[in-house]
Each structure stands twice: as C-alpha cells, then as structure tokens.
Protein 1
Amino acid sequence: MSDTKFKPVKKAVFPVAGLGTRFLPATKVIPKEMIPVVDRPVIQRAVEEAREAGIEEFIFVTGRRKSAITEHFEIQPELIEELEAKGKEKLLEKVRHSDMESGKLMTAKQQKALGLGHAVWCAKDLVGDEPFALFLVDVMILAEQGCMAQMIDVYNKTGGNVIAAYDVPRDITHKYGILDVEDKAAELSKIKGMVEKPKPENAPSTLSIVGRYILQPEIFDILENQKRGAGNEIQLTDAMVKLMADQDFTSLRFKGESYDCGHHVGFIEANIAFALADPEFGPQMREILQKYQDRPGTTRNEPRKATA
Ligand code: UTP
C-alpha cells in the first residue's frame, strides 16, 4: 500500500445489529450476516475484503441474538484437532481463514435497532479520532481488487471521505441513496450532495451508494445530535450531508459488480455469481446452470401445509 500524508485507515466498522426482516423466516434465529454465500457467511467475506485493504481492527456493532457472528471468528481447538487427525488439510485452511487474531475483534452493542446512523455512532469510542472504513455487509462486491482496497488507494491520494458508487438503472433509483456528483461520467468525482431513495425523475444521477465508505471521525459528532429521518430511523446519509459542508467527499465508481444480499433475489444472484467465479465450484456450477436455463419452473416450491 502506498505512503500517504493522511491518517491511515486501520479500523473498520461492521454494523450487524439490524433485524433482517426482509429475509424472514430465514433470519428468525440466524443473523442474516451468518447466511452463507457459496461456502462462507456474508460477514466473513466482508472481513476478508477489509483485510485485503489493510484493515487491522474489526469493530462489529451487534444487537440481540447476534453472538453467532463473533463466535464465527473464534478459534475452535476441538474442530482443528479433529480436522488435523483426519488429515483434512484443505478444510483446515478454510477454517483457519475465519480465525481472528487476538485483540483485533471488538464489539459495541446497539441496544435498539434505531437505524444505520445510530449503529455507526455506537462504534465511536472504539474508533476514536481516526478515519475508518464502514462496511454494509449484506452488499457483496465481486471484484478483482477488493472494493475497499480500491477505495483506500483513492483515500491515500485525496484524504477526506470516500464513498463507493455503483451505476443502477434509473427506474430503480427509489431503492437507493443516490449521489449528486460534479462529473457524472468520471471514475472519481467530488460529491455535491446525496439523496435517500429519490424518484427516478428527481434523481440527481444514477450513481448509487452501495455500502462501502471511508469516513472521518467528525461524523460521530453529527450523529450524536442527529434526529430521526426517513423510516423513523437515524440515517447515516443525513449526517454525511451535514459533514459535506465542512469536508470533501469523493465518489469512486469502483471496478466490480455489486450484489444486494439483503433481499432474496439479490442473495440468490450473489450465490450464482460468486459460485461461478470460484475456482473450486465454478466449472460445475456452469454446467448446472445450463441444465436449468430452458427448464420451465413447474415444480411447486411453497411452504408445505398439513393436508390432513
Ligand atoms: P438494512 O436496513 O439493510 O438491514 O441495514 P436490516 O435492518 O437488518 O434489514 P431489513 O430491512 O430489516 O431486512 C444495513 C446494515 O445496517 C445494519 C444492518 O445489520 C445491516 O448490516 N443496521 C441497520 C444496524 O446495525 N442497526 C440498525 O439499527 C439498522
């Protein structure tokens, strides 16, 4: 990673305290961040992306019934012994990949799911006076170089705040936070504004905010006093708009594909895309998909009800 005159980004915040209602009933007991995409939970993939970007400390903002998320990163000696005894080297390597070094994983509790802005604010004491990376883990990004690593490269040149941006079709801008940028066609641009879920006709661009941010710690002071906004939640976007009055925000149209795993179809698509891109599963997956391409979906797949 190149040298920079700006304070380096060494901490990442992962807000994982949401209720995952769009994913019910799968998330009745299991946190949505623990649902696997192909072979590993969504949260692990986000942590891997952070590691690649040079992040050294991992802050999870958790809520009730979310302990499985932190447990996933604990070393399990019995499991390791068992796999060693059976000579399962490949599996061992995969399991070790999910172990976290001592002292590097921290949690902050969000007692009530009051919104993303509030979840980020909960991490303020653990982040301190440093810039930090923020990951919305149910957005998964398939890219040659990880999205956050691309963003850190930009940050090291620009400083300030950096937001990953992704083009969406204009007719679905109402589903996203949308950026107003100085140069709509550029890979990098100064951000002039952002709007939460605008109607297509009002959207200032088609560049959506996808769930990867580098933010300066001053965001916490704003979040501290932030009133509830859309959906009666404390919105991160509202706080970023305020911070924009004092600090630069840069958008990066990153190289890669983004998948929204917070809802079912996006999650299924992510599984297909990540499986196809996986050296272990890709070739077999391609054959399977071909089999289903022209097959009419006639078999019923609804929850079965008792017939008696
Ligand atoms: P989402 O709105 O996508 O997550 O928030 P959610 O609330 O869990 O999902 P639905 O809408 O009920 O299906 C984006 C991220 O912010 C976290 C979520 O865990 C998710 O990773 N979040 C959201 C919090 O940590 N706390 C909150 O109060 C809200």
Protein 2
Amino acid sequence: MPKKVILDLDPGIDDAMALCMALFDPRLDVLAVTAVGGNVSPQIATRNVQALIEQLDPPRWPRVGVASYADTGLPVDGRHLHGIDGLGGVHLDVAELRTRHPSEKIICDEIRANPEEVTIIALGPLTNIARAFQRDPELPSLVGRLAISGGTVAVPGNVTPAAEFNFYCDPESARAVLRSPCTKTLVPLDVTNRVVMSLDLLNQLPPETTKVGGLLHQILPPAFRAYRQQFGLEGIHVHDSVTLMAVMNPELFTAKEMAGDVETRGDLTMGATVFDRRRVPAWRFNLEVAVDMQKDDVVRELLASLANSGRRTGRNRFEV
Ligand code: RIB
Ligand code: CA
C-alpha cells in the first residue's frame, strides 16, 4: 500500500528534485504539495509548485497549497544558490493558478480526511505546519509522522554559524512544531551535508527526452555553477532529496530519540537547534533525529528513484 504523503516545499532546486522523485515513486501517494516561502518568496514558491506539477504532469495531480508570508516575514532567501526564480533561472511557464486554498488549510483537510495515515515531508521553513497546528489543535495527534529537513546537531549552520536555513527563516514556527506532540523525524545538516552530488550526476539523470530529465537538465547546471562560485565546491547538496530518502528507505538511516528545541532570539543564535545532550538530559525526548546513514546506498537509491521517474514520464514538453 503506497504511503500517503504531503510535501511542503520552498522550491528551490533541491525541493524540485525531491518532487521529481516523489511524484512518480510507487511507494508514495502524494496527496498534496503545499508551497511555503523560504528559498524564494511565498508567491514565487507557489508559482513554482504549480509550474513543476504542470511540467511533470504526474498520473494523479496532487492538491496545491498557496504560500503566504510568515508573521515575521522572511529574514533571508536562497536565491544566491537557487536563482532569481528559485529554479536556476529557467522561468518555467505556468497556466492560471488552479487553486487559491492556503497551504495550512490543505494540510488540515488532508490530515482530517486520513487520520494517522499521512506523513508530512517538510522541506522548507515550518510556517505552514505551525499554522496548521494552530488552526486545528488536535491535528498533531492525527499526523502519522512529520519528517523535517533542517536543523543541526553538531555541525555549523549553513545560513549563519549557528542556524540552518529552514529553521532560521521562521524560528518561531520551528520551535512551535518541535514542541508539538506529533511524531517527528528530523534529518539535520549533519546527515544531509554528507551527500555531495558531483557533476557526474548530470550523466546519471534520466534522458532529456523525459519530462523529469528535461527539467533536471535545465535546473541543475545553474546549481553547480552557484556552488562553485559561492563555496568553491565541485558538487551540490541535495538536502531535500536525502530527507525524502529517509521516508522512502528508512532502513538506510540510523535515528535516535533526542530532546531538541529552537532558539528564537539572539543576533548570533536565532534559528539554532539546541539539543539536551547532557549525560542525564533534563529535557523530555520530543523527536527522532537521523544521526547516520548508509551514504552510498542512499545515493544509489536516490538515483534509482530518479531513473524510475524518468521511465514513467515519457517525452517532455521541453522538446522544441
Ligand atoms: O538548509 C537546507 C534547506 O534549506 C533545504 O530545504 C533547502 O531547499 C532550503 O530550503
Ligand atoms: Ca527546501
């Protein structure tokens, strides 16, 4: 039986790659894709979700949620890595927006319709998740599992020395979600940073004649250029695809119960994830944290998922 999932994205190139995997994987039933501001503004994130689904044209189109700004706005964005439009400057065409429902409403509706069955895969700031829990206080106990891409345990942040991007964008929501009573799995930078896809990835993608291959061959090269220019790195991180793999292939990851929270103040510390790792923790365990993975197997399964998506998406619309 395919696992019912909701993807919450701030596309974002690595979000887009995770979407390419999820929409066509037989292990998943993607009920909804909800947009959230982060790498790009809420408006552009919403447009990108719609455009990606139109380009990929999955067998069953998921519901789409409309993003709106976090109460405190967005302190930063990811356009230096993801391009001015969030997708490498490809500027995908998009038809008239088909839906006007807010992301948090879509999340509430789908969880209520499938109590304790849905895994929410949060690949951007946690604004929508926190709002859904505010909108329906019983919701956390009705979520099957919440998988979160973000945070750090023992490695530096990637947007400040202390904070990971998704948590830094909306620390109040990240704190509210980590303090909620739902079953949570966190996939932090400690794990996702360990996967660096080399330029050889471009040779391992599905053919450009497929919709998935055509899209990824457009949006990934700008990401490699940005990583080289910004970090001098001959490769790219795919944080969100690794987090998706933790849902699709949990046997490849090692997780442990931890007690974690998020700093919401401080010029230097805002957005930092803090764990009680004392010999006798005083904080209550509130989430599972992926602390290790079989990296080579994760990369192999990630590429296999992309290859499957390629096979299932026939000829693409990028063809002239
Ligand atoms: O820190 C990495 C995360 O922030 C990823 O989800 C990336 O897409 C950005 O949203
Ligand atoms: Ca993301």
